[in-house]
Amino acid sequence: MFERIKPPFDSILTHFSRMSSIELKYEASNNDRYFTIEETPVTRPTAFFYNFRKNDTDVKTVDLNDFEATLIWFKDNDTRQLLWHTPAMLYSISGPLAEEEIISIGKSIR
Predict the structure, then answer these.
(1) pLDDT of res. 49
(2) I want to staple 101 with a disulfide (CB 3.0 to 4.6 A). Which of 45, 55, 97, 110 is the partner?
(3) For the residues 15-24, what does the mean pLDDT come to?
């Protein structure tokens, strides 16, 4: 799990856009462990959707700090993406993480 990979990371890349979105990419020193967190402010009532090929993915709904989140496992490259929103933010976590790891990271965001 990522609890074993403690800072300092080799790199943390941050990207800010005009909409004040934030993207953080965490990389471990051996470069085969990484994940990305994206946070985008919700400035008005909104909904989001995703589009993917169903034949190489598994999709499930998970509870994340009293919010409904969508967990997608892309089997071909063994990566996962966790998506959810609060009244103020849209969140996305993605990377080659185990299901328990990505959910644990998501639950740590408040």
Answers:
(1) 64
(2) 97
(3) 63
Q: How many Å apart are CA 46 and CA 55, to the nearest integer? A: 28
Extract long-range pairs of 49-54: CB within 8 Å, 24+ residues apart: 50/83
Going 41 to 17 to 31 to 27, the CA torsion angle's sign is negative
In terms of residues, how long is the chain? 110
Task: Write the single-letter amino acid at 41.
Answer: P
DSSP 50-107: ----GGGEEEEEEEETTEEEEEEEETTTTEEEEEEE-SSEEEEEEES--HHHHHHHHH
- pLDDT tens digit sequence for 43-95: 776 666 666 667 788 999 999 999 999 999 999 889 999 999 888 889 999 99
Residue 60: both structure tokens together: 């499930």
The pTM of the full predicted model, rounded to 2 decimals, is 0.76
